[in-house]
Amino acid sequence: MGYKNAKYMLAGHKVWEEAMYPWYTEPEFVKMAIDEDIPHILVDLRSEEKAKREQIPGAFNYASNQIKELYQNLPNDKKKTRVILYSDNNEEAVKAYSALKANMYEMVSILNGGIDAWKAKDYPVESNKIRKEMPNALPAKLLPGAISTAEFKKLALNIPPDTVIFDVRSPDEYLSGAVPGALTVPIATIIAGRWNEIPQDKKVVIHCAAGNRALQVWRFMKNKGYNNIVWVDGKPPKEVLTQK
Prior knowledge:
five-stranded parallel β-sheet; alpha/beta; 2 domains; about 240 residues; Oxidized Rhodanese, domain 1; globular; 10 helices
């Protein structure tokens, strides 16, 4: 794909996951999740005093010393519950992230920069709204343009001639396992200008590691006039990531 000065982790994405290094979500995705009613649980890990003063709209407040209570109140579906954590102390956010991942919650991320990064975008905050009671389950619905991981598995195991799969993960993730025949174009390079490499005469299926980046690319490409394009909401099945 033209890379001449690429760097990657020799150990790969699998080791990154096993070490429980955190995944970060940008403020733009959280804003989109709120505005478009994308099912998620947003958790403010700061003190109740700080959360009362200002917090991101819709957040549940479980301070960093209440992780056990947070875990006990989260929806039971550990594979499909999207959890976004934020704090003003990244170390505390990472500890909470690691605790949830250790308890098998798959779709966990940390808001990069916390509430300060949120406010830097001039996004709204709310006051005097402390939430504790979470839903028992998030709505089981496919989002606009999304396909399920089960449908993606069928496609990836036998890619139709009129379909192209775009892997928007980073190079180190790709090296840990990829769909044979997929094209890899990391999200940052797409937004920087490589989006025109995506064909318009085929069905385009976009995937990443969990769905967040795929959704962002899907929205970006829709704004560029692409119509026959879908994204995978969730973690790709390991059975299809066989190319290394």
